[in-house]
Amino acid sequence: MADTKEQFESVAKICREIYEKKLADYGPSWRIMRPESITDQILIKAKRIRSLEIKKVNLIDEGIKPEFIGIVNYGVIGLIQLELGFSDLADISVAEAIELYDKHLAATKELMYAKNHDYDEAWRLMRISSYTDLILTKLNRVKEIENNKGQVFVSEGVDANYRDMINYALFGLIKLIYEL
Asked: Would you say the pTM of this structure is higher than 0.90?
């Protein structure tokens, strides 16, 4: 599992660096986004990944990696928004936004390490396109939960689905960077 932890930390660092750069450009402007809007933003990114996987050609000079990074970062933003609630303005500092990012990503990574132990690195046997499909499935579940005002009877909530999407996107990045 040493390689997995090392690779996971490496791709997570790439995502965090992009998050910090975006914060430098825009501040935490995303604080005004309601959870449903974050879910839709992740949906747009996952749909683009699937489109590129199927068409094998992109007309915009960005490939799949930036979209997986966007899924990770919007997933963490979604977790932050679930914790704080949305706001009518950017009501936290850049430093607070980074601290919250680190907190939620750390919890998400711990979940992955636990699941990875139990599933014995099964994710390595999967195709990147399966991560995309699983993210899209999780998005459909989240949208249903959001439409039901957050009520679930036996299923995991929105936060668990965001964490799974983040981890699938990080797995995709590992495969794109280290295995292809």
From this structure: yes
